[in-house]
Task: structure prediction
Amino acid sequence: MVAYLRTVPPIANPNLPAPRPPSAIAARESGHDGDPLGEQIYAGACASCHGWTGQSPISGLATIAGARSVNDPSGVNVAQVILFGGGRRPGEAGMAMPAFGDAYSNAEIAAAANFVTARFGAEGSRLTPDNVAALRLSR
Ligand code: HEC
Result:
């Protein structure tokens, strides 16, 4: 399914900014993408799987460059996947995105999501700790 979805060309949506292409991300250096706390969290908890270009060094499943979630300026899907993890269950083939909801505060998750959308997406999100608190209650 994932392999198929990655073959579907992106469709321009006038309501969303154009996705930032992987080549444009790769050309940037690490850092200076807005949120310093978010960058620190990304360096410690995310970069090993997702890399600094958003192209995963270990699995195509974990490539986030070009993903719809990171190109959504609301940042909601990114914050949700950080809070609750990916949809895949342990034991399913491939690797899974871990949940970080118990490991980080609302401020830390907002910072991480804002960093991820600013670095890998078309436009950085501006999630607040209160937004993340509301997302925690949505499940
Ligand atoms: C152990 C490896 C691993 C770590 C660590 C990890 N991820 Fe992931 N992540 C994945 C995988 C694999 C996926 C693909 C989704 C799935 O299949 O569950 C994913 C998916 C995602 C997505 C969704 C991409 C899409 O397709 O919409 C985002 C955003 C994301 N991760 C951000 C993060 C952030 C931020 C961190 C650190 C707080 C992090 N990840 C830590 C492996 C990891």
Q: What stands out?
A: The mean pLDDT is 84. The pocket of heme C is lined by residues 41, 45-46, 48-50, 59, 61-62, 64, 67, 69-70, 78, 81-82, 86-88, 95-98, 100, 112, 116 (CB under 6 Å).
